[in-house]
What we know:
Layout: E1 6-12, H1 16-28, E2 34-42, H2 47-51, H3 59-90, E3 97-103, H4 108-116, E4 122-126, H5 140-148, E5 153-157, E6 165-169, H6 174-186, E7 193-201, H7 210-213, H8 216-243, E8 251-259, H9 262-273, E9 277-281, H10 295-303, E10 308-312
Parallel strand pairs: 1-2, 1-4, 2-3, 4-5, 6-7, 6-9, 7-8, 9-10
Antiparallel strand pairs: 5-10
Amino acid sequence: MSEKIRKILVxxxxxxxxxxxxxxxxxxxxxxxxxxxxxxxxxxxxxVFWDLGRDPAWEKKIASLRAWEQQQETLAAGFMNxxxxxxxEAGFNPGSVTTKIGRQKEGIARDIIAEARQGYDVxxxxxxxxxxxxxxxxxxxxxxxxxxxxSFSLWLIGGKPNSDKVLIAMDSSEGGLGAVKHAGLMLNQxxxxxxxxxxxxxxxxxxxxxxxxxxxxxxxxxxxxAESEIQPALQLAREHLKKLDIAGERVxxxxxxxxxxxxxxxxxxxxxGGYGTIVVGRRGISEVAEFSMGRVTNKLTQLAKEQALCIVx
Length: 313
């Protein structure tokens, strides 16, 4: 990842969660490394409703629709002004932050994706209201953007996360190292800390007779070997962060072995350790080529509901 200015698209809808996304970007992103666009797609009233205005019985309803549209435009403009003030208070150069309100063309998600493909490096969006409901991992718009995020990194904002502590979930893959570089370039605030975290899944013995094939001593040796194998990647990650002038005392490493679920271990570590941000590569070292997103990352999108989950391409 080069030192070029990163283009960030913050997709908003005027909600409290959207403002949480704006505030997160304000507090987490390096000012000198980013060009930010706060973008809202305005839902349009179908043309058929305006056609009905020719019917005298619909005249009052049409007037109400026009008033509704005007109210939505006023609310959107107010949200944008609040967003600009937030970036200004955070110390961003006014010229590096702009706002954009677009009329819906194909659909809210499709319009955001189309905008994102105009050279943006990162898209930031709230998880969506539905994500707070039981069994619903993401809102429909966020879910559609996640599926399309193969050319840009995606930050999914849940709750009201802080950027003081960053948990970088990594393995020895190119994607793991990419997550480290992304965190170092984009989330390098002078007062935050970063933890390089690696979880090693254990071998579950649930079938009778399997303990003879995988005795405890052998299973422990596999864990020890896996822990040794990740060390070069962790060292390389530290070197990359050092090149970005991130002091060694701000970087720590942690390895957990014999976990049942790597994604669950990552989220549990984030909760227990007070990490507001989880950074992960979109794909890992053992992922199937036919799938655009790895199993662990996919599971994290379902579990990391109170953190900023940064999925790096």
